[in-house]
Amino acid sequence: MILEPFDKKFTLEYFRNSLQNKKGKIKAVLMDQTIVTGLGNIYADESLFESKIRPDRPASSLKPVEIKLLYKAILRILNHAVKVGGSSVATYRLLDETKGNYAREHKVYGKAGGKCPRCGKRLRKILIQSRTTIFCPNCQK
User: Fold this and answer.
1) Are 67 and 16 in contact (CB under 8 A)?
2) What is the 3-state secondary structure (H, E, C) of 10-74?
3) Mean pLDDT across the stretch 100-121?
4) CA distances from 41 to 19, 45, 110 (A)
């Protein structure tokens, strides 16, 4: 069963159970849509940053408290992003031709080489499954 993050069945228990025994880097696991659908590159980076989890960590290495932080970050970020119209990048527009406003609130996405909003260290860019991934090597463990 694959759920959307706004489905009532997408609970912490479901998320925790879905991550058990998953091989691969946590960002890749989140992006392959087998645990939660609709969590794309932008929101994966932002959720991992908020929960202080390195995107290149093995998914199976996450402790229960980290899974809970990540779960809460995913829900908070996606709820807020929907509320403000999503993240408009490049030429994407909403149905009324306006841009979403969540892009203004990105903490790490699209900010490689910039300063971490939490600690001030330089944000780093790596590739995970051919997707650009931005994170703070100091804050995210």
Assistant:
1) yes
2) CCHHHHHHHHCCCCCEHHHHHHCCCCECCCCHHHHHHHHHHCCCCCCCEHHHCCHHHHHHHHHHH
3) 87
4) 18, 6, 11
Residue 105 has pLDDT above 60, yes or no: yes
Whole-model pTM: value is 0.87
Contacts of 114 (CB under 8 A, 6+ apart): 122, 123
In one-letter notation, the amino acid at residue 127 is: L
For residues 102-131, give the mean pLDDT.
Answer: 92
Q: How many helices (H) and strands (E) does the chain have?
A: 4, 2
Domain boundary assignment for the chain = 12-83+101-135
In this predicted structure, what is the pLDDT of residue 121? 98
Class of domain 12-83+101-135: mainly alpha
Instruction: Give the CA radius of gyration of the chain.
Output: 15
